[in-house]
Amino acid sequence: MAVSVKLMSLIVGTLGVISFIFGIVAENKKPASGTLIPGKGLVICKYPGDPTVALGFLSFLFLLASSIAGYTSLFYPYQGKSVPRGAMFKNGSFSVFFNVAQFTTGLAIALLVWPTVTEQLHLMHNIHHNDVTKCPTAKTGLLGGGAFLSLDSCLFWLVALMLAGNAREDYFNEIEEKESNAQALKSSA
């Protein structure tokens, strides 16, 4: 089966939506706090079993896969025809959406990884030797925000892919025009 723009769009979109879903579910399953269990000179925080950490990492991995597929799809030589990257970036709209897609991907990664790692650290280091008054969890809202940025990132990669198609057509039309002008020049000489 040949790789086409439609197939790549489907891959990027599907991976991005899955990342979004995992991020939203992770945000919704995150407990508000743990249960405080006082002891002699220490406090133990007991957290309910929840899939937040696993879902957060899955959301991150699907975002990463979506972004890699998005980046690859822009410069892939469809139908065996390769386009130089410089020719792609001559298109101003493509350049803007490419950079916005990269920025939103980076921000989504930060907003997904930060609370996921923080939640994992809270679960691992649940014994405190000072008087804590409550058992903290990762900041609320970051996973959900990361999930929405993950979806935005996916959509920006798709728009960049459409604009790459336009830049690709412009490049091949320009090459074709130069060749026809060269042939016309040869035949007139």
TrEMBL record:
Keywords: Membrane, Signal, Transmembrane, Transmembrane helix. It is a multi-pass membrane protein. It comes from the Eukaryota. This is Uncharacterized protein LOC111480966. The chain crosses the membrane at residues 7-26, 53-76, 96-114, 142-164. It is found in: Endomembrane system. PANTHER family: OS07G0462200 PROTEIN-RELATED. One of its GO terms (cellular component) is endomembrane system. Belongs to the DESIGUAL family. Its main location: membrane.
